[in-house]
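In response to reviewer comment 3 from the previous cycle, which asked for concrete evidence that the modeling workflow produces usable outputs, we include below a single protein chain processed end to end. The sequence was submitted unchanged, and the resulting structure tokens are shown without manual editing.
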Amino acid sequence: PRPALDYFSEAPTLPAGGRLVPCITVPTTAGTGAEMDSGSMYTNTKERIKQCAGHSDLPLVAILDPELSLGLPKTLTAWTGADALVHAIEAFFVPAYHPMCDGIALQAIQKIQQYLPLVVEDGGNLEARGEMLVASALAGVSFQKGLGAVHGLSEPIGAVYDSHHGLTNGILLPHVLRELGASTDDHCAEIVKILALPTSGKHASSVVIDWVENLREQLEIPARLGDLLGDLDDDAVSALALKAEKNPTGFTNFRPFDAEDYARVIRRAL
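The workflow returned the following structure tokens.
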């Protein structure tokens, strides 16, 4: 067998006549979308970074059973739902031509708008649980197109500070959207349209940010990263920004972020 860390660089080549054993995934959150992806995320505790290993040829069958998520606490329901929302928005923003993933991402966003507040309010709402599982799976398909700076930064934060991934994403999303600003207006106009958001003459990006902030408040997710991590000094901010800059998950961001961009987002979020 190869050393474990070798599997993070490239998928192993199958021997002649070999095959991958089919994998059946059963998610209990809505969610990571991991049930739709052959990759698995690991924390490299030595380097304090997160890495992904997987094989694109892995046969996958996902079983979405809402009854298995009925016992999920309100906090985890909100935090994993925020993760699904970030997956869909970031995938939609990836600057690559993929109409199929874009359409799937928009439907995921629409379902999350409709059902996430309901299921956080009433965790026994089986219909809302089921629709959120579908939304999470849709978002998991859409991010085959790529992700962005929210994940680019939240993964190092999670690796260093062991913070909950969905909660970290939920805090960071509006701050990253503000950093991107009006450059995302064309994409945000599509989100505004499908969610039927009132515009009041604002830039589409501002309308989407306002909606994200209102949803964050509904989900009782903190507004500030400092509420999660405490105070960070300049050295800690710089170290996180450098890890984020090197994180491949953020390479497909709407526009490239360097360490200065990430540091600015962290300071704004604190």
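Residues 99-121 form the longest helix (23 residues). We consider this sufficient to address the reviewer's concern, and the full set will be provided in the supplementary archive.
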